[in-house]
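Morning. Coffee machine broken again, so started the prediction first thing and wrote up yesterday's gels while waiting. Chain of 253 residues, entered below exactly as on the submission form.
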Amino acid sequence: MLTTSWAYLDAPLPLAFAHRGVHLNAPENTSLSFAAALELGYRYIETDVRCTADGEIVMYHDARPSFVTKRRAQISDLALSDLRSAAAAAGEGDLPLLSDTLKDFPELRFNIDVKDRRSAELVLEIVQQTAAHDRVCIASFSAARIRRVRSHMARALCTGAAVTEVIRFLVNPSHYAKVPQPAVLQLPLSMNGIRVVTPRLVDKAHEVGLPVHVWTLNDVLDIRAAIDLEVDGIMTDEPILLKDELLRRNLWR
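Came back before lunch.
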């Protein structure tokens, strides 16, 4: 494991992430799920944001919300008020705004996956308004979206590697010793039965100062494998399972 100059990442390792909050008894990506994570002792949340038709940034993963009955309607097609009405009617929770979430949960740090171009353009305004620079890491699978975020940054902000950046790292790890971003690699432990995160990858990442986070581990054997690899962060939908394993190894902070 390694130390880091990023305030967001500065905490005892491995970082434990509640994936979309703790949604065992509450819908994911809701205020209730974030509050449940906090109550369980989590301080890091992996979450997602999308932009509504009226320019509001909401915490939601899918482009097409399951609670909207209008066929093919997407988050980007509907105003916040319509989305919230539909979510409430379907029992899907409060559909919180990113701005409100950052204000309501000052104890939490958020790994924010920007899911569309408009969110990539607006997320930094919200970070600025809420003075949350040290409490967020912005991530995206899309290189175009993460480049858009970085190009609009008025001050240094933690960002994760896009897929193409991960591939570039795998081809030439030393390249990242020369660049300030990304600040962290976030990878699946395995893909299609092939181990992605290996001791060599972790060592190479640490050599150039890159922490390695793995997602989304919901099996105790995978969690144990990740801890044994000395990764720097673990994301899970099974927060009690992860917490119990970290407690067993005296790694829960």
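The chain has a mean pLDDT of 94. Going to sketch it on the whiteboard this afternoon.
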